[in-house]
Amino acid sequence: MALVLVKATPLVFAALAGVVCERAGILNIALEGALTAGAFAAVAVSYATGSPLLGLAAGVLAGMLVCGLLGLAATRFGVDQIVAGTGINLLAAGGTAFGLVVVFGQPGASPEVNALGKTGEVALALAAFFCAFALQALLDRTPWGLRLRACGENPQAVRSAGLDPRRIRLLATIAGGALAGLGGVFLALGELDIYSDGMTAGRGFIALAAVIFGRWTPLGAAAAALAFGALSALQFVLQRAGVPSELMQALPYLAALAALTGLAGRARAPAADGVPY
Amino acid sequence: MALAGADPLAGFAALLHGALGGTHQISETLVQTTSLLFPSLAVAFAFRAGLFNIGAEGQLVIGGLCAGLLGAWLTLPGWLAIPLILAAGALGGGLWGGIAGTLRARFAGNEVIATLMLNIIAGLFANYLVVGPLRAPDAAGAETAELPESSWLPALVPDTRLSIALVFGLALAALLAFVFRRTVFGYSLRAAGDAPEAARRAGIDLARTAFVAMTLSGAIAGFGGATIVAGVLHRFNVALSPGYGFIAIAVALVGGLDPLWIVAASFAFGILQSGSLTMQALAHVPKDVVTFVEGLAILGLATRRIVATRSAPA
């Protein structure tokens, strides 16, 4: 059970980030990059200052920066969201690999740094689930939530109501980035105490799958992320029973494809998800 | 580069030396050019039709896998085996692209998500087969058995890894340029991409176009994977692609989605790819700088709005 939570927490954070962005109309492919940047920044700052808390703050900032870049590109510069997201993922992958050499003087992985410890790990895991409930309430029950959702369904109507959908979308991606950054922090300073190349291992994409499977709601996405986390925790057990580990790893993605067919109940994306405004 | 404590000029010089410093270097650069050209054409083909195929990576891997499995098993003379192997690659890639195409055409599923998921599934599937049941008994790494030498693509320049795949790639670029500019099919693809509503009213079946475009795009990428197997590695290896399918998006955008410019862009990125290792070795500039630059290129160039506005699934 503990292992399930450890595996699920970064997925929950990233999936919530995905929900916030997509409900505002930004299809955030760059989640993977935000996780990577968050994890790297957290370790780099903890290494430099010796304080894992400052590392946490840096990780959150890095996630906001990465997703904010996507938001800026998509809302101010008219770059296609998908293309921008792909570019940002390459930037984050190249930048962190390069950063390892610059900051730690060695490629591949950082040395061990001060981590958040057991308490911090548990606190972050709890925070992830708290965020799921809070976000659900925020989206469903507050004027902000209504405006954000309106941007994802019909940005023209938001414009007509005298609000600036671009600004709201930008803020939504930055807020999402903070969540994704936390996911990265958990990976690097919660579960482990180092940064290594490729440590996010596609979690940003599993999170996108969780968003679809959770039908674009915070609680649904968090539940899907928890299920995917349980899968990866079970992987070791089932592998010994002869189930190929690749099949287990592929299940979240296969589930997302199945969800796309809409055969398992109609899952509908926000109408203006990924559509530029 | 300066950040890493290395001399930027020396780094740049090393990059150019590694990419263009001699016959061997130039041929390796052209090998990279070829490997990038196919997925880039595939990406451009789909983008032109208004479809975001970010699954060229997975289609390339599946194409290479099919080519590698068939190639290692076939014992036919080369003139018969090579076309079959390349066709197997195109078929595999086309099938993989077709899954995303079907999802979009039949279920209005987002092709971005579909191709993204299919990329990862392709990698895991290939890994499972090659590490597990289909691993060659004598293989050093995770790879299939070697293709018989008669099935290798003939070398363009003796004693290099540069094969006639480059010629195929150039021919394909010319063919695509012709299709886009001069044929009804190419026109209907572009219409579906640029003005879907107008295209629909003009009687173009958008769902069918989406399926056909995704399948053909996948086939082009899969063909590219097969040329890497038959022309460069001579077997399928899970490390077949260092992300060609993703870099291809940068290449396609730099080339303005025009097949002929994409040839030039592939060469430019081929220089980056093949020179980066030399740069790392000689000037101590991490090769990952190149990945970073490729990301910047995508972001910067996409601001020119050369990509048609995304449309809701048909």
Strand content of chain B: under 5%
Assembly state (oligomeric): heterodimer
Q: Describe the sheet with the most strands of chain A.
A: none
Low-confidence segments of chain B: 305-314
User: In which range does the helix fraction of chain A lie?
Assistant: over 70%
CATH class of chain A: Mainly Alpha
Secondary-structure arrangement, i.e. CATH architecture of chain A: Orthogonal Bundle
Shape of chain A: globular
Report the average pLDDT across residues of chain A: 87
Helix content range of chain B: over 70%
Separate helix tally of chain B: 12
Question: What order do the helices and strands come in, and which of them pair?
Answer:
The complex is a heterodimer of chains A (277) and B (314).
Chain A: H1 2-23, H2 31-49, H3 52-75, H4 81-104, H5 117-141, H6 143-153, H7 155-160, H8 165-191, H9 203-213, H10 218-240, H11 245-261
Chain B: H1 8-20, H2 23-48, H3 56-73, H4 78-107, H5 111-131, H6 165-182, H7 184-194, H8 196-201, H9 206-233, H10 244-254, H11 259-283, H12 288-302
Helix pairs in contact in B: 1-2, 1-11, 2-6, 2-9, 2-10, 2-11, 3-4, 3-5, 3-9, 3-10, 4-5, 4-9, 6-7, 6-11, 10-11, 10-12, 11-12
Short summary of the structure?
The complex is a heterodimer of chains A (277) and B (314). Chain A has 277 residues and is mainly α. Chain A has helices spanning 2-23, 31-49, 52-75, 81-104, 117-141, 143-153, 155-160, 165-191, 203-213, 218-240, 245-261.
Molecular structure report:
The complex is a heterodimer of chains A (277) and B (314). Chain A is mostly helical and 277 residues long. Chain A is built from eleven helices and no strands. Chain A has a single domain (2-261), classed as ABC transporter involved in vitamin B12 uptake, BtuC, CATH 1.10.3470. The longest helix of chain A has 27 residues, at 165-191. Chain A has helices at 2-23, 31-49, 52-75, 81-104, 117-141, 143-153, 155-160, 165-191, 203-213, 218-240, 245-261. Chain B is mainly alpha-helical and 314 residues long. Chain B has a domain at 34-245. Chain B contains twelve helices and no strands. Chain B is globular and about 60 Å long. At the A-B interface, helix 4, helix 9 and helix 11 of A face helix 4, helix 5, helix 10 and helix 12 of B.
